[in-house]
Amino acid sequence: MNRTYSFFIALLLTIITLKINSQNNLFIGTQIPLTYNLGYEFQFSTKWSISSQFGILTKPYDKAILTLLEEFGTNEQLVNTVGEAFSYGLAFQPEIIYTIRKWEIGIFYSYFFLKAEDAPKNAIENYYGVSFPIRPPIFFESYNLTLTSNLYNAGIKFGRKFYFKNPAFEIRTEFDFAKTFASKSKLTANDADIDRISELVDKDLKEYYIDYGYLPAINIRLLYHLNK
User: Fold this and answer.
1) Which of 10, 134, 149, 212 has its CA 20 to 30 A from that of 195?
2) Which of 134-138, 141-145, 201-205 is the least confident region?
3) Could you tell me the fold of the domain covering 2-132+141-225?
4) Does the predicted TM-score (pTM) go above 0.85?
């Protein structure tokens, strides 16, 4: 019984301490040249905090990830599979951050869902040496190919805090660097079974993403401190 009471007392004291020392922050920002973000940070001590952000990849960032991949590798695989750009993307990034005065260092995991519409049919057939199923005459429209890619990344970040006279607001500038460690891609077509072709595309892009998936970014955030 004494151990049980001690455990609950320790837990209660921990919760009270976190409550007293905690700071809750909302933020908006952008990871140039990847996404626009909205997030939440829980600072449970003067040095440690955790945060998570949700992002959207859209213009003018729609070609950014392809451009970064091409810089580190070759562009033949991407141009022949994805086309010129991803139509849009979504991102999720949880972080653990350690702060020293105005400076911070952190580690994070990030997930990207990327969608490329109107993937080039002829280029895919030529590059992979495959043929799409012949469509019955009842289908007058051409193939509408869509490629989706899921990228799983791990990264590190460095940043600096800038304060305003109004203590409720704060700006942070950060440098993020992430590396793709896994991926899953799928090619789909309207009213056609192309699972075999999709498996070839997934296998090829998986190797490409893992070999050349380096994602550096400059992160700018505007924070609002809810407690102040």
Assistant:
1) 212
2) 134-138
3) Porin (2.40.160)
4) no
